[in-house]
Amino acid sequence: MTVDAPKPTWLPAIRKADGPLYIAIADAIAADIAEGRLSGGARLPPQRALAAALGIDFTTVSRAYNEARHRGLVEGRVGQGTYVKARRTTGVQPATDGLVDMSMNLPPLFDDDALTARLWSGIGSLQNEHGLDLLMRYQAAGGALHNRAVGASWLQPRLGEIPPERVLICAGAQSALLAAISILAKPGDAIASEAIAYPGLRALSAHLGIEHCGIAIDQNGMIPEQLEALCKSKKLKALYCNPTLHNPTTSTLPLERRKAIIDVARHYGVAIIEDDAYGAIPLAAPPPLASLAPDLVYHIAGLAKCLSPALRIAYLVVPDRQSSVRVEGAIRATSGMAPPFNAAVATRWIEDGTANEVLRAIRQEVTMRQAMVSRLLPKDIIQTDQEGFHLWLRLPPPWTRGDFAGRLRASGISVVASDAFAIGPAPEAVRLGLGAARTHDELQRSLMTIADLLQQTPAASSLVV
């Protein structure tokens, strides 16, 4: 008399036509973890038992479990079997319980287990498409042509059709900025930007020995007349501009100002470097400068703010073939190339629609966090955009930026004072990042601490005894 083998406690929902069967099983493990059907610590069926239940070869199940282990989904325990890994619920701990480092301008974490599993699944599937070549071969300095073409498709909704040859892949926006500036200016030359500008540009200018001039801004961004006045008094090699959800003030240049700035730059022969770090986030924004003047603008579209800071991938769109050759040489000289693995991950996420889903999730989370800001912080001293995840806090007297940042630091909250951004005199203001908080509760308590401090005076809030 034969005894039927016990039915496995878990069976994957798969279709044999969905690519390699072992990948389909690993994908099913990821999906069931995300949906809660497999919880942390659950034991997967023995490999032979699952193979028998599915009517497939034992080695296929073995490869599937190995694939899941490589993705970090499961772990093998000697003599015990294969178990689902417990999910991590915390990352880097804040300095003080419930408070966060608001100096970091990160996209907010979204609460979507299925999308998280999809991100990791996309990374794991690269093995089948690329094999060992992706890990053991160099690529051209400007990136593989297919990755450049996919980058062009990602930018198409904002920039229109772009030949892949005009798109270069860089190791993050800072690398793209270095490559662009290095072909446009040399030591002793002058470039300009908003008077309150991205700190990475200030550091890069100082490192290269390039004079960095500031142009006055108002609530709508750079003032075109101030740019023209500077062009009349100084020969500028390049103009850096962060026109959409400006860092740190969150302003977005209106269309008429964009056109006016382009007219001034064209008249005085000044190349424009457009940092479009946040350009993908708004559902509707004025057209990028690169779409208005493609022959004049070097457009930098990083993925750190709209997809993943960990990728360190940015697309640099250049005006023409000649500038493409020059920029590719600069990339080769300064960074060699963007990491091919990271570029392949970005390509996979864009092609399979994951990138757009992440962007949707970020937008949704931003809406909830901005609602907390509207409820908890005084509106008259805040400059922000409902589609952005940072804000510019103009401090009421008698607060100074140093006192305010110091008091917050004593409470376990880190913010960035305006000195980090100012070219010239710094206003009494600080930037707050809304994305670093891991939960809404952490963000709420931090915003309440800030609101409470604003109700006090520097003297009354002093901790010195």
Protein architecture, described:
In the C-terminal section; belongs to the class-I pyridoxal-phosphate-dependent aminotransferase family. This is PLP-dependent aminotransferase family protein. There is one protein chain. The protein is α/β, with parallel strands linked by helices and 465 residues long. It is 42% helix and 13% strand. Among the domains are: 21-84, Arc Repressor Mutant, subunit A (Orthogonal Bundle), CATH 1.10.10.10; 141-354, Aspartate Aminotransferase, domain 2 (3-Layer(aba) Sandwich). The chain is built from 17 helices and 15 strands. It has a 7-stranded mixed sheet with strand order 3-11-10-9-8-4-5, with helices on both faces. α1 (21-34) packs across α3 (58-70). The N and C termini lie far apart (86 Å). 41% of the residues are buried.
How are the SSEs ordered, and which strands pair?
Blueprint: H1 21-34, H2 47-54, H3 58-70, E1 74-77, E2 81-84, H4 113-124, H5 126-130, H6 133-136, H7 145-159, E3 167-170, H8 173-184, E4 190-194, H9 199-208, E5 211-215, E6 217-218, E7 221-222, H10 224-233, E8 236-241, H11 255-267, E9 271-275, H12 289-292, E10 297-302, E11 314-317, H13 321-334, H14 340-351, H15 354-376, E12 382-384, E13 390-394, H16 401-410, E14 416-417, E15 429-433, H17 440-454
Parallel strand pairs: 4-5, 4-8, 8-9, 9-10
Antiparallel strand pairs: 1-2, 3-11, 6-7, 10-11, 12-13, 13-15, 14-15
Helix pairs in contact: 1-3, 1-4, 2-3, 7-14, 8-9, 8-13, 10-11, 15-17
Pfam family, one: GntR
Organism: Ensifer oleiphilus
Family: In the C-terminal section; belongs to the class-I pyridoxal-phosphate-dependent aminotransferase family.
